[in-house]
Write a structure and sequence with these properties.
Length: 180
Amino acid sequence: MDLEPTDHWRSPRIELFVLRPALVTQDYVDWLNDPLVNRFLESRFRRHDLDGTREFVAQALADPAVLFTGIRTRADGRHVGNIKLGPIDRQHRLGEVGILIGRVAWGQGIASEAIGLLARIAAAELGVRKLSAGCYAANTGSERAFVRAGFAVEGRRPAHVLLDGRPEDTILLGRLLQPN
C-alpha cells in the first residue's frame, strides 16, 4: 500500500514514514537479530540479513492489504522502529497491528505514540473501524503500550505459544476507532 504521509502521520516527537527497501539499514537488521528485541517476535526463529529484510519490506509495500511504516524521531530523524497495519480486512473494516521498537528507543513511550498515530491513519485515511493486536503475556511492555494507546484487553488464549520451550498465554487487544 502506497500512501503519502499527512498530518495524521506526525506527533510532536515522532513521525511515521512509508518503509521502502532502500531505507532498510543494518541497524534495522540488527534489531531483528537482537535476542532482547526479538524475544517476543515470531521473526526470532530465523537469522536476518540486509537483502532478505529488504525483500520482506518490498513484499509488504506491494501488498494492498498492508501499510508498513517506519518510526523516526522528529528531533534527529533517527529510525527507531517499525509499525505495521495489516492485513486489513476491507469487508469488515478491521486491521491487525504489529510493532517493533529498537532498543535505543525503549522506555520512552514511543511505542504507544506510534500506535496512536497508526490508529489515526487507519480511521481517517483507510476507513478501518477496529484495530486488533496480540502479545505474549510476558511482554508486559507491549501490553502497556497498547493500553496507553486506547486498546482494551479483550481476551487471553492460555498456553497458545511456546516461549523458551514452555507454554505461554497470548493477550488479545482491540480498539474501536472513531471515524474522522
